[in-house]
Amino acid sequence: MPSALRPELTAKCLQLIYSQSANANVASMGGGALLGTLFWNIADRRIIVAWAVAYLLMILYRYRLGQRFQHAKPEEASQKWLNGFLSAVLVSGMLWGAYAVYLASMANEMQLAVVVLTVGALLSGAAIAYSVIISAFVAFSLPAMLPVGIFLLARGQSDSSFLGVLVIIWMLFMYRSAKRFRDFAVRSLDYQFENIGLVRSLAEQRDRATELADTLDRLSQTDSLTGVANRRGFDQALASAWKQANEAGSPLALMFCDVDYFKSYNDTYGHPAGDECLRKIAHEVDTVAREVGGRTSRIGGEEFAVLWPQATAITMAMLAEQIRQRVQALQLPHSGSASLGVVTASFGVASSSKSIGHLQQQTDRALYDSKKGGRNRVLVAAPEPLQ
């Protein structure tokens, strides 16, 4: 077997010749039965029966070898399975060669022609069945037909010599045909594997492109400073949550959070300190929100929003109070704060089933009232009147 073949192509060639064994065995037994019947009253019957038993044992061996091959991974030890098959077809060819020479030694002209035609037909079948691995064809054809040709040439009779030459020519012709078929079959299989490889490569590129697109989309929805969702991400999440709430027939709750006196903080401590302050607050907001399945977004300079689809206005207000306490507990110094001297935040909460715009207006109004009422507090918008 050519060493240049890729492992998966070698394995496929082995699968093809193993799969053809059943047809080859049927043809051999048919040819053997034909010759056995023709020579039953001429040849030694014990030899005919012995050949039939020997060939049946060989067929049984090839069958068991094929069964083991089907449950194995031929690409891991292809040479082992090739050697096993070569040994089997070599013995089969030797049995046929010996049988044909024995029968030819006592045949008349008509019977001799039948022997030669039978072996020639088997050789033609082998050219198709085994040609994908040319060594398998040679392992069968040489011991099966060459002895007959040599025997006919050695008889020294003109008719036998002519027939012997024809046998040799036929064997060479079948070898050339087998090589051509082998080249065609291997090229076809190689194209098949190349196409499979191309499909896999395209699938991998598609997956990488999809992954890249997902990454870019995720990055386009992420605030680069704080790592939480940005305004675009918030708008998409809000639209999705609103649709789910409508389908469930329930209002949607929303929380806005605004860092108190943040402009003064930036003016006093500088923008780098302001950025660090926002990162720490975003971390606290996001940590609390994630614990209940909520999503945090930075929707303005110092303003954050939390979506918690399962929440009511009351449970959202409780979540806001927890966040408010954690922001204050950071104890970030803020000399510009009018109350505690540390960074604090104000919160507005609302729920609505009217529209997304109405929900945001109500939440923003609640946040405004929270800041107007002294900051560092949670204020819930008045509930909507029952319809």
Could you walk me through the main structural features you see in this protein, from its secondary elements to its overall organization?
There is one protein chain. This protein starts with 6 loop residues before the first helix and ends in a 7-residue tail after the last strand. It has helices at residues 7-19, 21-38, 45-70, 78-104, 109-129, 134-154, 158-220, 231-248, 262-269, 271-291, 313-329, 356-372; strands at residues 252-259, 295-298, 303-307, 345-352, 378-380. Helix 3 (45-70) packs antiparallel against helix 4 (78-104) and helix 4 (78-104) packs antiparallel against helix 5 (109-129). A 5-stranded mixed β-sheet has the order 2-3-1-4-5, sandwiched between helices. It has 12 helices and 5 strands. Helix content is 70%, strand content 7%. The chain is rod-shaped. It has 387 residues and is of the alpha+beta class. Helix 12 links the parallel strand 4 and strand 5. The longest helix has 63 residues, at 158-220.
